[in-house]
């Protein structure tokens, strides 16, 4: 009976989907999208939207040769260009390269010593906005002596563990990527002056770059100190983590600094509606449920909006996936945002 219902649900879903949704679903069903979804919180890789310049900070733990690559989802348009510049912790350019989507995107190799680095990337998509795909992934991989990619444990790239922050976006928006369920980040309400702060920061960085080698000694120390202070904000505009659909239990803790409306949502790639069901609860410090939601029917995701007082909260989730592990997606993104403040 359950099998019959599942088949009936799948049939109804196929009829309800548009041609574009079916195409996305078919593309997703051919591969396991776990790596792509996890990239947003993986110290070795990160996903970005096309347009604008983005940064991916990472740490190298051992000397060796490293490879930098870009990729997009199967079925996405390959009419794009990726430009990348590798910087050391002093902001000096080490290497740069570019790649076209028709040639499998960006591929760059460089020998690195232990230390902190930043990969600055710019993705430009050509054609109309209707062409498939609006994001790409850049990945840092360690190579062995024969030029083969090493595993995550052997790669020499710090695997993270905790909270990752690549700096504020152009609009001043800050995102914490959490890849450790013991790490706790604080959530902040939208700041009206974020855009002004971002513009000011950009102008300051431009002025510093224009000065070139004119700054010395104390000015370098001051710049380094300022960067350290900005490296990890006291609170973020949003907190993001990636989870396996079948995961169950407490997966994320966050602090609310000011009372206000907090949003906790889940999402994955379009075209997978009805292939899974997610449930979430928000627990307070005493373990009591203060809000909850669960997907129903073809609405697979949870979407919680609730007013929370200052304090620490934990997100508990339970996921159910329909079909085999090779069909659809296996992971989803959990996102926490504070929408406003309240007295």
UniProtKB/TrEMBL annotation:
Keyword flag Phosphoprotein: no
Q: What name does this protein carry?
A: Peptidase C-terminal archaeal/bacterial domain-containing protein
- Alphabetically ordered keywords of this record: Signal
Annotated segments matching region Disordered: 191-228
Instruction: Return the Acidic residues bias intervals.
Output: 219-228
Identify the stretch annotated as signal peptide in this record. Answer: 1-16
Instruction: Tell me which domain of life the UniProt entry assigns to the organism this sequence originates from.
Output: Bacteria
Tell whether Signal is among the UniProt keywords.
yes
Question: Compositional bias (Low complexity) at which positions?
Answer: 191-218
């Amino acid at each position: 009976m359950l099998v019959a219902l599942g088949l009936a649900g799948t049939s109804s879903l196929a009829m309800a989907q548009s041609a574009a949704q079916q195409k996305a679903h078919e593309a997703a069903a051919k591969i396991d999208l776990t790596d792509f979804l996890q990239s947003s919180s993986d110290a070795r890789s990160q996903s970005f939207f096309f347009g604008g310049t983005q940064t991916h900070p990472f740490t190298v733990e051992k000397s060796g040769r490293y490879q930098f690559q870009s990729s997009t989802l199967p079925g996405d348009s390959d009419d794009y260009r990726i430009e990348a510049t590798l910087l050391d912790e002093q902001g000096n350019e080490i290497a740069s390269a570019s790649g076209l989507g028709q040639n499998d995107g960006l591929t760059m190799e460089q020998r690195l010593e232990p230390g902190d680095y930043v990969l600055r990337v710019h993705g430009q998509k050509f054609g109309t906005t209707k062409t498939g795909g609006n994001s790409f992934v850049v990945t840092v991989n360690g190579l062995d002596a024969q030029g083969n990619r090493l595993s995550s444990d052997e790669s020499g790239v710090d695997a993270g563990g905790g909270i990752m922050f690549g700096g504020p976006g152009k609009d001043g928006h800050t995102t914490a990527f959490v890849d450790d369920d013991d790490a706790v980040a604080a959530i902040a309400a939208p700041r009206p002056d974020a855009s002004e702060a971002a513009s000011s920061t950009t102008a300051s960085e431009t002025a510093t770059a224009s000065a070139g080698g004119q700054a010395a000694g104390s000015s370098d120390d001051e710049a380094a100190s300022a960067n350290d202070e900005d490296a990890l904000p006291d609170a973020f505009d949003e907190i993001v983590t990636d989870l396996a659909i079948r995961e169950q239990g407490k997966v994320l803790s966050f602090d609310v600094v000011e009372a206000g409306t907090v949003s906790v949502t889940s999402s994955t790639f379009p075209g997978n509606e009805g292939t899974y069901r997610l449930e979430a609860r928000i627990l307070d410090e005493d373990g009591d449920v203060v809000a909850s939601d669960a997907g129903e029917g073809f609405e697979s995701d949870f979407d919680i909006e609730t007013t929370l007082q200052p304090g620490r909260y934990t997100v508990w989730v339970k996921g159910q996936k329909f079909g085999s592990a090779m069909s659809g997606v296996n992971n989803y993104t959990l996102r926490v945002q504070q929408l406003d403040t309240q007295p």
